[in-house]
Design a protein that fits this description.
Elements (H helix, E strand, L loop, with lengths): L3 H10 L7 E5 L4 E4 L1 H4 L8 H9 L3 E5 L5 H8 L3 E6 L2 H10 L3 E4 L10 E6 L13 H10 L1 E12 L6 E2 L5 E2 L9 E8 L2 E2 L3 E4 L3 H9 L3 E8 L4 E8 L1
Parallel strand pairs: 3-4, 3-6, 4-5, 6-7
Antiparallel strand pairs: 1-2, 1-10, 7-14, 8-9, 10-11, 10-12, 13-14
GO biological process, one term: methylation
InterPro entries: Methyltransf_11 (IPR013216), SAM-dependent_MTases_sf (IPR029063)
Keywords: Methyltransferase, Transferase
C-alpha cells in the first residue's frame, strides 16, 4: 500500500509543498486535506483539541499522530509523549520535527507499553473502521491504560450529511451498515492509496458501546458542527 499520507507530509516538511491530498469517499464527495493544517501550532487548533490537550496527563500515547503537532505541544509542556502512526512517512516527519519517542505501527498491533492518557484526535476513533470492530478496538485501547488512565477522543455525527424530511427525520440509505462507515481513497501527486473504511461515530452509539464493556464514557464538550470530545475510563 502506497504511503500517500506520509509522502505528502514529507513533501510539506521538506519545503516541496505544491498540492494537497485529495480524498474520494463513498459519500460521493471529493475533498482535500490541506497539508498546512496538519502542521498547525496550538493557536490554530480547534477548541475541542485544545480541551483534550488540557486534559492530557502523565504518560501519553498520541494515536494516529500524523505530523506530530499534538505530541510536540504536550512534549513542550513537559509530558512524556509517544507518537504512534501506521504511516512510516508520518513517523519520519515527527522525528525530524523533534518528537522524542515514536512508534511506526498500527494501533491494534501495539502492546509494548501502558499509558495514563490515550489521545485519538482529528476523529481518531475512525481507526476502528467499522461499527462491528468497535468492541475489539475499545477493549484493545483499555488494555493499554495504566490504573486511573483515560482515553480522550473526538468524532463527528455525520447524520447532517443526509437529506432531512419535514418532520426532522433523516433519509439514510438502507445499505445494511451503520451510516457513519465511510469508504475512502486518497490521491496525491499521481499516487493512490488503497481504499479504507473510516468510522464517524455519534456519541450515543459510543456511549452504549462503552456501557456494555464496563467502561465509563463522559461527554466532555460538543463542537459547533456535530462534533464532540469524549473521555473514556475503566470502571
Amino acid at each position: 500500500m502506497a504511503d500517500v499520507f506520509g509522502m505528502a507530509l514529507m513533501d510539506y516538511h521538506q519545503g516541496n509543498y505544491t498540492e494537497d491530498i485529495i480524498t474520494h469517499s463513498s459519500l460521493d464527495e471529493e475533498d482535500t486535506i490541506p497539508l498546512p493544517y496538519l502542521f498547525r501550532d496550538y493557536e490554530k487548533m480547534p477548541p475541542l483539541e485544545k480541551k483534550a490537550l488540557a486534559l492530557a496527563k502523565g504518560k501519553v500515547l498520541d494515536i494516529g499522530c500524523g505530523a506530530g503537532s499534538h505530541s510536540l505541544y504536550l512534549q513542550k509542556k513537559g509530558l512524556e509523549v509517544t507518537a504512534l502512526d501506521y504511516s512510516a512517512g508520518a513517523i519520519m516527519v515527527c522525528q525530524e520535527r523533534g518528537v522524542k519517542s515514536t512508534v511506526n505501527s498500527a494501533i491494534l498491533s501495539y502492546t509494548d507499553d501502558k499509558f495514563d492518557t490515550l489521545l485519538l484526535l482529528m476523529n481518531g476513533i475512525g481507526l476502528a473502521g467499522k461499527l462491528n470492530n468497535l468492541e475489539r478496538f475499545l477493549q484493545h485501547l483499555a488494555s493499554l491504560l495504566l490504573p486511573n488512565g483515560q482515553i480522550l477522543l473526538d468524532s463527528s455525527d455525520i447524520i447532517y450529511m443526509f437529506d432531512q424530511d419535514e418532520d426532522g427525520g433523516y433519509w439514510i440509505p438502507n445499505t445494511g451498515q451503520y451510516y457513519g462507515e465511510v469508504e475512502f481513497t486518497m490521491t496525491y501527486k499521481g499516487h493512490k492509496s488503497d481504499s479504507f473504511t473510516w468510522l464517524y461515530l455519534d456519541y450515543n452509539t459510543l456511549s452504549n458501546a462503552c456501557l456494555s464493556h464496563n467502561l465509563n464514557c463522559e461527554l466532555v464538550c460538543s463542537g459547533q458542527h456535530y462534533d464532540y470530545l469524549a473521555r473514556i475510563t475503566k470502571k
